[in-house]
Amino acid sequence: VTLCRMIIPRNSNLEGLLSVDVDPVNLQDIKWLKSITKLPIMVKGIVTAEDAARKAVDAGVSGIVVSNHGARQLDYTPPTISVLDEVLLSFSSS
């Protein structure tokens, strides 16, 4: 997707724009990326243990970054510090 060529509708926020025009990265994308490079792959934007953290590590990423990307556009996103324990505990129990 070339963002500079996209027509941005008036009164559109970033969340609305990205949810329509940019597909989220999924586990198949991570596996494909691993198949074409030997570089380490990190995943940023992890905010839940059960959903993304364990699956990302199981997919073979080199590391994860627990982050809500600053939550500037998504004001309902939980603060990173409040989900960090949940993510860490999910790895210490396995």
From TrEMBL:
Q: Give the subcellular location.
A: Peroxisome
Look up the EC number in the record and give it: 1.1.3.15
Top-rank EC class of the record's enzyme = oxidoreductase
The record's annotation in PANTHER family points to: PEROXISOMAL (S)-2-HYDROXYACID OXIDASE GLO3 (PTHR10578:SF67), S -2-HYDROXY-ACID OXIDASE-RELATED (PTHR10578)
Q: Which UniProt keywords apply?
A: Oxidoreductase, Peroxisome
Q: Where is the signal peptide?
A: none
Q: InterPro entries annotated for this entry? A: Aldolase_TIM, FMN-dep_DH, FMN_HAD, FMN_hydac_DH_AS
Query: Where does it sit, as one GO cellular component term?
Result: peroxisome
Under which name does UniProt file this protein? (S)-2-hydroxy-acid oxidase
Residues annotated as coiled-coil are none
Recorded hits in Pfam families, A to Z, give: FMN_dh
Cofactor(s), by name: FMN
Source organism, top-level taxon: Eukaryota
Annotated Gene Ontology MF terms?
Answer: (S)-2-hydroxy-acid oxidase activity
Please name the source species: Ensete ventricosum (Abyssinian banana)
FMN hydroxy acid dehydrogenase domain: residues covered: 1-94
